[in-house]
Queue: 2 jobs
Job 1
Amino acid sequence: MKLIEITPEIVQLTRFGLVNCFLVREDDGLTLVDTMVKGSANGIYTAASTLNRSMRRILLTHVHMDHVGSLDVLSQQLNGVEVAVGRRESRFLTRDFHTEPGEAANKVRGSFSKVETIPSALLSDGEHYGSLMVVATPGHTPGHLSFYDPRSGTLIAGDALTSVGGLRVSGDGPAMFPLANWATWHQPTALASARKLAALEPKKIVVGHGMPIVANASQALKEAVRHAE
Ligand SMILES: [Zn+2]
């Protein structure tokens, strides 16, 4: 597990050079954003212990397999931990993959593994979760959420964006990382969400897959939107 300090409040954890999750400091402990693939719990614990804080909350960008793989183990071991997910996205945890009225009728894509954990908090656009602002960013999945930390102007974009081989809107990824493209539900919706994220003019951007963007992030995001257009 590789650790990269993004800001004094946010640490990125990376496995296989490709799968990321994040520890976010709050006054009462840590919020873990996403849980990586199965078998990541011990590495996440070790990372949290180096920060000398306990994990109080688990927050999910979306519920594809590579983001909820270690959720059950972590939520069982961290007795009483709060688990928060988007209200819309939570339906996939009960294996209901129907689209809703007003959404594109495309089939929801990507791998959803079986999850036992029942979320304790359901989030919607514009809410605050600890220090993080919840930004609904449908497209990769219909209920995908991103999180903005106003303390440092950092955007945790999950799979709304990828940065393997350069920052791109999900569904418009470079050929060297086709996985996020295959798993993207509806690209025009992903593009509309990316425009919404660009309007935040983030100073730094971190994503589910790829390196953090710590310089000229807002510019890079505007270019990614133009590329997807
Ligand atoms: Zn992913």
Job 2
Amino acid sequence: MSTVHITGYHEANKSLSLPDLKQSLYDEGAVLMDRVLVTLHGEEHRVRRLLEMRIFKKDFFNYYSEQVLPPVINQAVAYYQRKGSADLMEFGPRAMIALTADFAGIDRPLGTDAEADTLIGILKALGLAATLGQFTGDREPIKETVRATLRQFDEQFFTASVARRRALIAGLKDGTHTEEQLPRDILTVLLRNEDRVDLPRDMILRETAFYFLAGAHTSVHSLTHAMHEMFTWAEHHPEDRARLKTDPLFVQRCVHESMRLHPSSPVVQRRALCPVHLPSGDDAAVDDTVVIDLFKANRQVAVFGEDAAEFNPYRVLPAIQPPYGLTFGVGIHTCLGRELAAGVVPKADTDPLKHQYGTVTSLALALIAANARPDPNRPARREPNIAREAWASYPIVLGA
Ligand code: HEM
């Protein structure tokens, strides 16, 4: 069995839609990832994806950006404003666990900082499962940590969240509740359909935990990179400092450009189910691994220009070219949370007051409004032991 690497943008784009390549990045992380949406294939994947996409009904994004986002962002910013400083690698998880818990369907009945700390701990431990494939040491202790964390997640959050939703769903059936009273989250969608699709309880537990994880980790990574790029840009382009404070569409453009340069999954990985002739011209035999390098594809000069490896929020691209490149994947497993995280790509006539900015830009705008800037006394640090470029710590100060 060998490994084929794909680095070209168009080749990567086409390969992501090939039905004979099956997800394999999370094979080692089955303790959490077994049969969750991103690891399913074929008909089973199609049915589950269609089911979960029901959450995005017509007005979902308005509801999310008007009702869910503002209180969560205000609470997270206020928490750190009281302190006058923050670490983006702590701010991000504190804001994101609330958002992805709501989206996944995990209730936070207390709403306290201590409860948020517990969920942040759970998020960190579950995150170990997603990167087990890249871990070279003894994996068993890590798997045990993930198992124990899933049990904690179940006992402290999942069981009660299920019970509340079951009661509401029963109320819908006997007419004591209306559709509008049901939460708009993945857990509710799954519980309402568990008889129609093969969804045992442990499967629903893992799927809910996966959503909680998938949305948060990726967004924290994207937010920290984007803030760093904007801080650096403002330092070298003082003429744009005011623009970052007054032009939210420009901030979203900065976020998309940063997402292109720093995809939170730098590679995706597939296994060939049969001999496949790849768009790159390579051939993959049965069980060969195909690594699709989003990081390199997103920096292709032929697609993004001579300065493709640099941050340039003024980059001009054809209208059909997503500014964030392949960061959210394409094809069969395209990210379900893309619009939530990145918002809508603006057009020339977009009204900034009615625009859908997405979670990452909304968080960035709140930080900019709070006058966030790098802490001059505590330099940011990169994560030394991770293959992808990641921040270990990014201290900032807030306020005047
Ligand atoms: C900046 C933020 C995000 C990035 C960069 C990102 C990136 C990705 C990528 C690259 C994939 C495809 C993986 C593959 O092809 O193997 C993916 C899939 C997925 N993402 Fe995201 N994601 C983000 C945020 C979110 C959020 C906020 C949610 C949910 C609330 C989410 C839910 C999912 C799900 C459910 C899938 C699996 C889709 C499927 O297999 O059909 N993501 N994401």
